[in-house]
Amino acid sequence: MHLTVLARFVSSTGAEAAFFIGLWGKAAYEFDGTPTDLAIMSAIIGVAAMIGSVGGGALVDRFDARRVVIGAEVVFVPATLALILASDLPRLLALGTVVWLAGAVLETAITSLPPALVDDAGLDSANARLESANWLALVAGPALGGLMFPLVGFSGIFVFDAVTSLVALLLVLGIDLPDRDAARAPADTLATGGPLDPVTDARPGPLADVLDGMRLAMTKPAIRLVLFLAALPSLAFGMFIALEPLFFRDVVGAPVETLGYINAIFGVGLFAGSMWLERRDRQFTTFRNGVLVVMASGLGSVLYVATGDLRVVLIGAITWSIPLGIALPLSRTLAQRAAGPTHVGRVTGLIGTVSSGASLLPIVVAPVLAATLGIQRVLLAAGLLATVLAPLAWRAAAREDRASAAAAPRSAPEGSATEPTS
């Protein structure tokens, strides 16, 4: 598991620097992006992420997560280097689409690795550790990007992203997946796909794989609940992706490097939240606690944009990020437990798809609302959504917690280790 955690940290460090300083910064500062421009950029990110998450999840269940991570990194390297060639905003968005698509496949695949590497008892800790690596990269990536930018410019940031992807690729090549699916899966189910076709005795096609994953998500209340909770923070994120650079430029009055530094502080809080969850083991991983931390993250995001004072922004970054750092791995663990080994990739991908889709909804109205109400007021309203809507899931969360408590705990397959050497 430690190679997986290290690979995610290295890859995400470059990706975070490239996004916050390279893509976001270049769009807002070099190309003088307007709210409409950044809304379009956010919409493209969301659509590409949805497609990549769905496709990545199906690929994981068909081939295995390690192979899909390797393939995604191979595509990612030339794609991010191509961003150097972008001489205007339309070209930046066109080239960035490929990067975001490959990144979504990569994200789905690498977050699908824990169920293949550890038994059920270790899943909470494994997901928290993997998420902690991502949040630590959110500290290191933007901070390094901010330090590097005066020396290397936007092009150097994209080269840095490509190099970190190559290093992560080498690390993933050293991961050896144990053959656990064969021990867990029913006899009529392929280890890397859905049930065999009763007529042809063959594996179903890719579209059937995707539809099968969606069918499972819609028929399992636990997975539906996780998808709802995952969507709420993304509703706010959609508005923030479209308007946050302009908030720093027009309300806070800060230079482009501040985007990197503030998001590094945000990453500290996310890392702290995930590490806190890891130390709780299974004690905190309940649906009702999922509702509570989503509500708390919404309140933190309100504080983040409540004033134009950079000191208050810093405090808001912490109070927003800590509960969010708890919520994301907690939700993924609950969903993966409910999915079972044959559908873990598709359910993990659906979390990414729903999150990306939810982030698209505010983008449609972001430019109009910003022009009418002002950037700050719109961001405040977006932050309140999670706090207001999350309690609607409380009764459903209580039912799922009672059902989980009544169910007998699953045990690891006979002869399997909790964590392989890789």
SSE blueprint:
Elements: H1 2-30, H2 35-63, H3 65-82, H4 89-111, H5 114-117, H6 123-173, H7 181-184, H8 206-219, H9 221-252, H10 257-280, H11 287-304, H12 310-339, H13 344-360, H14 366-373, H15 375-389, H16 394-406
Helix pairs in contact: 1-4, 1-6, 1-10, 2-3, 2-4, 2-8, 2-9, 2-13, 3-4, 3-6, 4-13, 6-10, 6-12, 8-9, 9-11, 9-12, 9-13, 9-15, 10-12, 11-12, 11-15, 11-16, 12-13, 14-15
Structure commentary:
- The chain is mainly α.
- The protein has 16 helices and no strands.
- Helix 6 crosses helix 10.
- It is globular.
- The chain starts with a helix and ends in a 16-residue tail after the last helix.
- The C terminus is likely disordered.
